[in-house]
Amino acid sequence: AQQMLVSSEKLSTAGQLAASVAHEIRNPITSLKGFLQLLETGIEGKEAYLKIMKDEIEKIESISSELLYIAKPSPNEFEEANIIEMLEDVCLLMRSQARLDDVEVVLESDLDHHMVLCDRSQIKQVFINLIKNAIEAMREAGTITVKITYDETLSIEVMDEGEGVPDSLKERLGQPFLTTKDKGTGLGLMVTMDILKNHEAELLIKDREPKGSIFQVEFL
Ligand code: ADP
Ligand code: MG
């Protein structure tokens, strides 16, 4: 079974997003304030509190940097670019992160050259987000395969060996702040889907046998 992911117009309106951003940032700020008050009273076990405070600050930091994409003032910069070379760059970049988790990133391609009209840095961001999710989905050593095929349309599949996406979550993917991770922001797929929409490309999700998922980008 495969499913096409479409961004929800309703949820991506500025007002709704602003409300959820305020909410997501207020939680860590409230907790920071509480811990600061505790520290002022000079309690024991400072280190543990400082560690939590650092985590909360990091959370605000990652939310802010992902939101910068949405607020980005510069317009799209579309140009003809070799997508195979761009994917080679992204795989190389992600390998250093994957290696820490004993995960390999393999690129399989029918072609070594294929030009696509795109905003380079945005399309790179799409595959960074998908490969990052793939790495995070794998609990043990294994392989992520990025498979490029061309048959009337260009298709790029990011295939992992993780736990897969539960059906109940599939239709909600791309909603802002939807995350199942302790340190997740739940913004990666929203940004990914927005970029792909600007490129008239589609994102499909499929289950992988025997385990894992496939996030497929199809350029129309
Ligand atoms: P984040 O990675 O910060 O949680 P994303 O928008 O990138 O936010 O992903 C949202 C959620 O979708 C994740 O928390 C996870 O539950 C699910 N997900 C995304 N990619 C995968 C994948 N490859 N395998 C399993 N679950 C995934
Ligand atoms: Mg992510």
TrEMBL record:
Catalysis performed (reactions): ATP + protein L-histidine = ADP + protein N-phospho-L-histidine
Entry EC no(s): 2.7.13.3
Top-level taxon in the UniProt lineage: Bacteria
Keywords associated with the record: ATP-binding, Kinase, Nucleotide-binding, Phosphoprotein, Transferase, Two-component regulatory system
Enzymatic class: transferase
All residue ranges annotated as the Histidine kinase domain in the record: 20-220
The protein's name: histidine kinase
Organism: Alkalibacillus silvisoli
Upper taxonomic lineage: Bacteria, Bacillati, Bacillota, Bacilli, Bacillales
